[in-house]
Design brief:
The complex is a heterotetramer of chains A (about 130), B (about 280), C (about 550) and D (about 350). Chain A has about 130 residues and is an alpha+beta fold. Chain A is built from 3 helices and 7 strands. In chain A, strands 1-2-3 form a 3-stranded antiparallel beta sheet, with no helix packed on it. Chain A has a two-stranded antiparallel sheet with strand order 4-5. In chain A, strands 6-7 form a two-stranded parallel ribbon. Chain A is extended. Chain B folds into 2 domains: about 100 residues, Translation factors (Elongation Factor Tu (Ef-tu), domain 3, Beta Barrel); about 130 residues, Rossmann fold (3-Layer(aba) Sandwich), CATH 3.40.50. Chain B is about 20% helix and about 30% strand. Chain B contains 7 helices and 15 strands. Chain B has a 7-stranded mixed beta sheet with strand order 10-9-8-7-11-12-15, sandwiched between helices. Chain B has a 6-stranded antiparallel beta sheet with strand order 4-3-6-1-2-5, with helices on one face. A two-stranded antiparallel sheet of chain B has the order 13-14. The longest helix of chain B is centred in the middle third of the chain and has 17 residues. Chain B starts with 7 loop residues before the first strand and ends in a 10-residue tail after the last helix. Classes of the chains: A alpha+beta (about 130), B alpha/beta (about 280), C alpha/beta (about 550), D alpha/beta (about 350). Chains A and C meet through β1, β2, α1, β4 and α2 of A and α3, α12, α14, β9 and β10 of C.
Chain lengths: ~130, ~280, ~550, ~350
């Protein structure tokens, strides 16, 4: 059993949460007492933070729409298809025909990378996230 | 290893449709590692994988063993899953748990059963057991009467059983909240049926149904001079273990799974209970 | 957060969360704090137990409003009228901080003249709050020099959201309650990394660290590091991208970890827009409503399966640590982006670690200049601005001067919400996050048995008098109509809302309440008006 | 022949002793981690891990005996038959540096999980454990074990009890495993002198005099036996309970749990037991939607009455051990000490 300190995934408070890990399964979450925000307690959602991680509803494989339905494919196939489709749109309709939505649930690094890809790779400023929603 | 939480497997031998919402599942245990016995009023923790467990009272008589009846109303995720099962499917069972009706005291006494909806299920276990006993011994019980309330004529459950009981001499009176064009019997609350009933001081009353019904029937019986120690009811509470550990069924210092689900009204009068207050 | 950036030069929370506990007056507006920001609510209540005064502006009697010394239960959409009224009182009572105004702000005279032309009684009538209550609240706020304002989406999700924020900023500057510890203006950020997504410029009009897209020297710096020319035109906002409808300018989209097909206003329009795209790729942890419309779906790793940093509401950049390897065949979004980048020939998509990505961020983003992983690990994170390695981080903003130089007063005028309750739609529908147990579109919380047990289905809060009048029972299914759609929802009898107002959350995909809301938005922030639309309640005929 | 019940352990011998003990069992002790939190941690290397006896461990021993989430069974569905398979067994564990309140709580849990049914997984872990306590010479900020009669030193229940006398520990042995341990490792210890006993008692007296808070717990318990709590108190508390469940989760004597199935694939999953809180509305709601508890008024009624009224009635002792963990962490500030204050203040206005 190992306890890893991370930051809660729910609201903008940013509590310090330990995830209890047993055999690659997250089996608990509890607050850090020394952390300046959590100070020994979590809200009802934070105490249940481990619950959704191993949900059987998690996506398990890349999916590609074939004949109208989403089917499991390899990473390479999904990535190649996506890269090609985005480049096609760029060539056919220009870079501003592509839109990108980033996420307030993803890390700074991921947000940075995605806006870099959008601006430097796709050549458009069409990037936003749901800050307002 | 927590053996206390491992259910034994049972197979569905027969399914009897009681009404739109209620079916009786006739089960037999497959895992017979230890002998199984129970008393009327006790309940089982019933498992369906992916859905968890729920407490359900046994509706058949112990005399019918090895067959065990569970009459189940579709209410939540687990009971809906059970309703989608067919003959031959398997369920998990733990138990029996809880305090039973004091059937040993019933010998030679008049018995009045008052039930509403699915509430007849645990009482059915007592009635069938008493009938079986009276077959063996004429004095087992002196008279059995049943007052049974349902929402509408199509909601009346256990109609087959009620027919059999009538044949065996039980005085069954039915009432519905809302009648349809074919209904000629009583319309109104089950407490109204009590108006035509006479009780001697020795009679025992057993009540099961929705909290509002339990409350009004107890009030009426008390008014009619029934002694608190002779009125029994069985309470429903959310439960997770059935054996006094999980804390969910805590009721003013007691646990329904251990100290109940059967309580005499004299016991309930010392407690703060939803079924009696408000 | 355009409004606050215009007034102060920065759109972030000016204080630290811990400072709230020491404040003497807390004005909470448009924030259901105990539910949406529990730890901030905890600080507020501690302050109250210490003796601080709590003022709450909210049309609903939320749990935090119940604890307030004064609850200003305004008519939805009349925030500006209320704040203007409070400022007028402050002027009348000579409670303005003249020294602060002259040293640290500009544009005051125009605002003062405007406020003097307003009729206090008329403003109070607009808000439907008693004038003496407004007067008392204004005095309490103005008389303390440790007054702090917290606001959330209840202020911004209006067609006049930007003005609302500027009104709040005016109030703070008028009384000198900014630029120091225990007093300031604090927008409470919704999701765990909204602040970071903004900081990192997942926004159409700025570069990381809110740097100007137009500044040539800044552009040159980015182009040198990214080895690619930067696009010239400002981009389109989320609403512009997802509401274009048929034949819109957007032909292909990549959506990472967002679910606009449920959270967006005017859902039909979003679905229509997404469905007609030539190509849609979605990366998420669950098969969301949006993912179901996609051509390609990537299974992303959850927060527990990856590292990286996130930035909380008080600008604290914190390290997340990987607890377990990605489950199934999932991959972190950073890997997915870099894989795509490499396949599209984009340079600089070969980072070996999150720490290496942060090194590039620090290089290009002055407010993140000192955010190095070793430092973040040691200190439970650092608060930006943190320009270099030796900088300790910033507890509260605008010390010595506002980020934009001088704080700017802006005249804000009351305007009626886009849609008014009318004969056919007599109720005002307010939407938002509304429970201790669910989060946003509940894709995560609904996978927790306990949270589902506590809050199993969507509820429409209706005042008990309205329920009695319409003969609606608690828990009864009703139909809620607006000009744009109909949903079926379970009624909850309550006194949290006033008669004539109803409230529901948007947590449940079965009850897409945002199908009813208007898509009118604030012209500056592009924030949609979720908070007010008109609706009708109809009983459902059983059987 | 030295008395095996009470001995002195020079502090220099502590690590050597623990090293020996850790050969036969897992050693768990409070360790301050890199993030500044003191947690009970399984120690694999005594030379690189510093045991922290200066701070109160953030969590009690509860997670080791009643984990936040425990797998009770794996299940496999195939066709319409299914099979439950039980999970793995417990390992021998020595807990060192346990505070008096936390052991008292464990003794209470023993009671709960033994009657009427013995909870096999709890007992499996319990019978594989040995508890070495450390008496508190200096109570922590929110402690009130004096009021709950569960510290600062203990009379019984421990395997061994350590009292810090400065450069040495005064060690008392309980029955069974603790005494065996002293017998086996007697050579690390020396005899108790009269001086040691004097110092020990003096430290005990001083510890008792250092509590920050005076909680009228016994008074509250007696009052609850006699009279009803005014409804306003319940409502005042409920209005500020934001349903986080934190008080129940951090409480070393809150044992309420839930049992749920967690699907892992279409035809397999685990049945788990997890911490539950009686302060939640769903705790008592029945499948049909009926709820015997009105959370909006009585969110905290069950919890406080259980600890202070029912357990006092049935065990003669409240099931609050004064560890103070629930104090200061409540979002609304309505912890058990607030309740006791409200209840007892009423009497002497």
């Amino acid at each position: 059993m190992q306890d890893i300190l991370t930051i809660c995934n729910y609201c903008g408070c940013g509590c310090g949460v330990y995830l209890s890990v047993d055999n690659d399964q997250v089996v608990g979450s509890y607050p850090s007492k020394n952390h300046p925000i959590s100070r020994g307690n979590l809200c009802s959602k934070g105490w249940q933070l481990h619950e959704f991680i191993h949900s059987d509803k998690r996506l398990s494989s890349p999916l590609l729409r074939k004949n109208g339905s989403l089917q499991e494919v390899s990473w390479d196939e999904a990535l190649d298809f996506t890269a090609a489709a985005l480049m096609t749109a760029k060539q056919q309709y220009g870079p501003d025909s592509i839109g990108v939505l980033s996420s307030a649930k993803c890390s700074n690094e991921e947000n940075y990378l995605l806006q870099k890809l959008t601006r430097a790779g796709l050549g458009t400023n069409n990037i936003d996230h749901c800050a307002r929603l | 290893m927590n053996k206390t939480f491992i259910p034994a497997r049972a197979i569905i031998r027969e399914i009897i449709r009681e009404n739109d919402q209620i079916s009786t599942f006739r089960l037999e245990l497959i895992d017979k590692t230890k002998p199984f016995s129970f008393l009327p009023g006790q309940f089982l923790m019933v498992s369906v994988p992916h859905c968890g467990e729920a407490a359900i009272s046994i509706s058949s008589s112990p005399d019918a063993l090895p067959l065990i009846d569970l009459s189940i109303r579709r209410a939540g995720e687990l009971t809906t899953a059970i309703h989608s099962m067919e003959k031959g499917a398997r369920l998990g069972l733990r138990g029996p748990f809880g305090k039973a009706f004091p059937v040993e005291k019933f010998s030679g006494r008049d018995l009045l059963f008052v039930a509403g909806g699915i509430g007849l299920a645990p009482l059915k276990s007592v009635i069938d057991h008493c009938l079986f006993q009276s077959g063996l011994d004429d004095d087992a019980v002196s008279g059995i009467r049943l007052l049974y309330g349902s929402r509408s004529p199509s909601d009346i459950a256990f109609t087959g059983t009620i027919g059999l009981w009538r044949e065996q001499g039980i005085d069954v009176r039915l009432t519905v909240d809302e009648k349809d064009e074919h209904w000629t019997d009583h319309v109104g609350l089950v407490t109204e049926l009590l108006e035509d009933i006479t009780l001697d001081s020795n009679s025992i009353s057993l009540i099961c149904g929705p909290p509002v019904m339990i409350r009004s029937v107890i009030a009426k019986l008390t008014e009619m001079g029934c002694d608190d120690t002779n009125i029994f009811t069985t309470l429903e509470r959310h439960m997770k273990c059935g054996m006094g550990l999980c804390g969910h069924c805590h009721l003013d210092g007691r646990l329904v799974c251990l100290d109940g689900p059967v309580f005499s009204v004299s016991e309930l009068n010392t407690m703060d209970v939803m079924e009696l207050s408000r | 957060m355009v409004g606050l950036a215009t007034s102060f030069g920065s759109g972030a929370m000016t204080n630290s969360i811990a400072e709230l506990e020491e404040a003497d007056v807390l004005l909470i507006t448009g924030s259901n704090t105990t539910e949406t920001h529990p730890q901030i609510g905890r600080n507020i209540l501690r302050a109250v137990d210490r003796g601080a005064k709590l003022l709450v502006i909210d049309p609903r009697r939320t749990d935090i409003a119940r604890q307030a010394h004064i609850h200003l239960a305004l008519r939805p959409g009349t925030d500006i009228a209320l704040i203007n009224a409070m400022m007028r009182v402050i002027l009348d009572e000579n409670l303005a901080d003249d020294l602060f105004i002259s040293m640290r702000t500009e544009n005051f005279i125009q605002l003062r003249d405007y406020l003097h032309r307003l009729d206090l009684a008329e403003l109070a009538a607009i808000t439907e709050i008693d004038i003496n209550t407004i007067r008392e609240a204004a005095c309490i706020y103005a008389r303390s020099s440790k007054s702090v304002i917290c606001y959330c989406l209840g202020v911004t999700q209006h067609t006049c959201g930007t003005d609302n924020v500027q009104a709040v900023a005016n109030l703070a500057m008028l009384t000198g309650n900014v630029e120091k510890k225990h007093s300031g203006v604090d927008p409470l950020r919704g999701q765990n990394n909204v602040q970071g997504a903004c900081d990192m410029a997942a926004l159409p009009a700025v570069l990381p660290g809110y740097q100007s897209l137009e500044d040539m020297s800044i552009r040159a710096r980015f182009e040198a590091v990214w080895q690619r020319p930067l696009p010239e035109n400002a981009g389109k906002s989320l609403t512009e991208m997802t509401h274009a409808g048929k034949d819109g300018p957007i032909r292909a989209m990549f959506i990472m970890g967002e679910n606009p097909a449920l959270s967006d206003p005017h859902l039909h329009r979003v679905e229509e827009t997404l469905e007609q795209l030539d190509f849609l790729a979605v990366s998420d942890i669950f098969l969301t409503a949006t993912a179901k419309l996609a051509h390609v779906v990537f299974p992303a790793a959850s927060f527990a399966e990856k590292g990286g940093t996130i930035t909380n509401s008080e600008r604290r950049v914190q390290l997340c640590r990987r607890a377990i390897p990605p489950i199934h065949d999932c991959r972190p979004d950073s890997e997915i982006i870099m894989e795509l980048g490499r396949r599209m020939g984009c340079p600089g998509m070969d980072f070996d670690s999150d720490a290496e990505i942060m090194e590039e961020i620090s290089l290009l983003t002055p407010i993140y200049g000192g955010m190095h992983y070793d430092r973040l690990a040691e200190n439970h994170g650092l608060q930006w601005p943190c320009p270099d390695r030796s900088h300790p981080g910033t507890e509260f903003l605008h010390k010595y001067y506002f980020a934009r130089g001088k704080g700017q007063f802006t005249i804000t005028r009351h305007q009626e919400p886009y849609e008014k309750a009318a004969e056919k739609y007599p109720f005002t529908l307010v939407t938002g996050r509304g429970s201790y147990h669910h989060y946003h579109t509940a894709t995560m919380t609904r996978n927790s048995r306990r949270l589902v047990r506590e809050y199993p289905q969507a509820k429409l809060e209706i005042h008990k008098d309205d329920c009695r009048r319409l003969n609606i029972a608690d828990g009864e299914m009703v139909e809620l109509h607006s000009k744009r759609g109909i949903v079926r929802i379970s009624a909850q009898i309550t006194d949290r809302v006033k008669p004539g107002t109803v409230f529901s959350s948007f947590h449940f995909f079965e009850v897409p309440i945002n199908q009813l809301t208007v898509s009118a938005m604030d012209p500056k922030s592009k924030c949609p008006e979720f908070k007010v639309c008109s609706a009708a309640i109809k009983k459902v005929n059983h059987d | 022949m030295i008395d095996l019940k009470e001995l002195i352990l020079p502090k220099d011998n502590l690590i050597p002793l623990l090293r020996k003990l850790s050969k036969d069992a897992r050693l768990v002790a409070p360790v301050k981690n890199d993030h500044g939190d003191t947690l009970f941690t399984a120690i694999s290397d005594l030379d690189t891990t510093e045991i922290d006896l200066a701070n109160q461990p953030q969590a009690s021993l509860k997670p080791f005996f009643l984990p936040q989430q425990e797998t009770l069974a794996h299940y496999q569905i195939s066709g319409d038959t299914y099979q439950f398979t039980a999970p793995k067994a417990a390992e021998d564990t020595i807990f060192f540096g346990v505070r008096s309140c936390d052991l008292t709580a464990l003794l209470y849990m023993d009671l709960i999980f033994s009657k009427p049914a013995k909870d096999t997984s709890y007992y499996d872990r319990r019978s594989h454990s040995l508890i070495i306590t450390l008496g508190c010479n200096q109570p922590f900020a929110n402690c009130f074990c004096e009021a709950t009669n569960s510290g600062p030193y203990l009379e019984y229940g421990y395997g061994l009890q350590f009292i810090d006398l400065g450069d040495r520990y005064y060690v008392s042995a309980g029955r069974g495993k603790g005494a065996d341990l002293l017998k086996k490792w007697g050579y690390f210890f020396c005899e108790v002198q009269e001086e040691d006993q004097r110092i020990r008692y003096q430290l005990f007296l001083e510890a008792r005099g250092q509590f920050n808070r005076n909680i009228q717990l016994a008074h509250a318990c007696h009052k609850l036996q006699k009279e009803e709590v005014p409804e306003e108190i319940w409502e005042q508390l409920a209005e500020r309970c934001y349903d986080c469940g934190g008080c129940a989760y951090v409480c070393p004597t809150c044992t309420c749990f839930s049992v749920d199935d967690k699907p892992q694939s279409r035809d397999s999953g685990i049945r788990v037991r997890s911490w539950d809180a009686c302060t939640s509305g769903g705790f008592t709601r029945m499948a049909g939607g009926h709820n015997p508890v009105d959370r909006s008024r009585h969110a905290l009624k069950r919890r406080f009455l259980h600890k202070l009224k029912y357990d006092f009635a049935s065990h003669g002792k409240a099931s609050c051990t004064g560890c103070g963990r629930c104090v200061d962490i409540c979002f609304g500030g309505v912890d058990i000490t607030r309740f006791i204050d409200l209840l007892t203040r009423q009497e002497n206005p």
